[in-house]
Specification:
Blueprint: H1 2-5, H2 25-34, H3 37-50, H4 63-81, H5 85-113, E1 120-122, E2 125-127, E3 145-149, E4 157-158, E5 167-171, H6 181-191, H7 193-201, E6 206-207, H8 208-215, H9 219-231, E7 235-240, E8 243-248, H10 250-255
Parallel strand pairs: 3-5
Antiparallel strand pairs: 1-2, 4-5, 6-8, 7-8
Length: about 260
């Protein structure tokens, strides 16, 4: 029942991702139930034009069917999302820390410039170059809610209805999963322990002094190793005021293995 309502298409109904979701699952489900029937019908008609959907989706505005949908969303969350919520929240904490660092160092412009490789900040415009639909959203003094998504795939997503609060959902910068002892030993053999530790730390962004503390070496020694990693194409370095922030390149993420998620996806 859920797959036709959330297709990989240019559009799916905005009422299924309500603004009230910022307060948690239950407020979001209540908002889905409370959406006016006319809005539901209009958005489901748009969804039908954007992709092939079963005929029953045209009846989602009916109360019994929408109640079934909400019950199913709750059950899906309980079965599929809740068991992994701790790992998901850890990823979000790292994302907030990364953006807080950008905000403190360079203000709003720094935060916007560092959101995702899929997003480009060119004052005063935030561009999503590969977005599937050509569109312009004018804030007109309204704020923009930025939502990092654990499940967003490749391109960021915005609400289609310009009358709704402006929202941009973008792929979260995933954390590395725990490496096996064998993987860790192989990485140490290839790079040496210090460079391996610094490379892993770069998955969520690390300054030179932080890298030194993680690896248990002096700042000068850490600088030597970050230079070697950068020259090898494994990390990239962004200068910010008096510090340097090191992050993984795609090659660096690939070296850390298929379970490493130091890339945006």
């Amino acid at each position: 029942m859920l797959l036709p309502l959330f297709p990989r298409a240019r559009y799916f109904a905005d009422f299924l991702t309500p603004f009230e979701g910022v307060d948690g699952l239950e407020p979001a489900l209540e908002a889905i139930l409370a959406t006016p029937d006319e809005q539901v019908n209009d958005e489901m008609a748009m969804a039908a034009r954007a992709s092939r959907v079963p005929s029953w989706t045209s009846r989602v505005a009916e109360k019994p069917l929408r109640e079934d949908l909400v019950d199913l969303l709750r059950a899906y969350h309980r079965a599929v999302i809740a068991p992994h919520e701790e790992d998901i929240q850890e990823t979000f904490q790292a994302e907030r820390a990364r953006h807080a660092r950008s905000m403190l160092a360079e203000g709003t412009a720094g935060l916007l410039a560092d959101l995702s490789p899929a997003i480009r900040w060119r004052h005063p415009v935030l561009e999503v170059p590969d977005y599937p639909a050509e569109n312009e959203v004018h804030l007109g003094g309204r704020g923009l809610l930025l939502i990092p998504s654990y499940f967003c795939w490749k391109a960021p997503v915005a609400l289609a209805d310009p009358r709704l609060p402006p929202v941009l959902v973008y792929p979260v910068h995933h954390l590395l999963t725990a490496a096996s002892t064998q993987d860790e030993a192989a990485l140490h053999a290839l790079l040496g322990r210090t460079r391996a530790v610094i490379l892993r730390a770069a998955a969520t962004g690390v300054t030179t002094s932080e890298a030194a503390r993680r690896a248990g070496v002096s700042t000068g020694t850490a600088t030597h190793h970050t230079t070697a990693l950068r020259d090898s194409g494994l990390i990239t370095t962004h200068r910010r005021a008096n510090s340097a922030l090191h992050t993984l390149t795609t090659l660096g993420a690939a070296l850390l293995g298929g379970d490493a998620v130091g890339e945006y996806r």
